[in-house]
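Worked Example 4.2. Consider the chain below.
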Amino acid sequence: YEVTMLSLFILTFIFWALAAIDVRRNGQRDLERKYWHKHDPTLIAEGLFCLATIMAFFKLLFVCQLDYNLGPLQMSLGKMIKDVTKFFAIFSLIILAFAA
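Applying the procedure from the previous section yields the following structure tokens:
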């Protein structure tokens, strides 16, 4: 897990460097994002950075479970989210049943 997260961060920085080289070489600094190629290094770097950041936060949540104060709070929050999800499922079922 950690190797994957760190490799995603490293790939992010590599793609950012490739994007900087691409801008210097082609000089398309002011080109709007909607005209970028779908495999532009900046877009790939942002996607990889997003995945790596999500993985880092999940690792932080795992570390928080070991804390004396934050661990029980996180466990109770997880159980509350499950209960709220069940409530919204039943609520949406009732609303859809009587909405027609």
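Residues 70-100 form one domain. The CA atoms of residues 12 and 45 lie 5 Å apart. Compare this with Example 4.1 before moving on.
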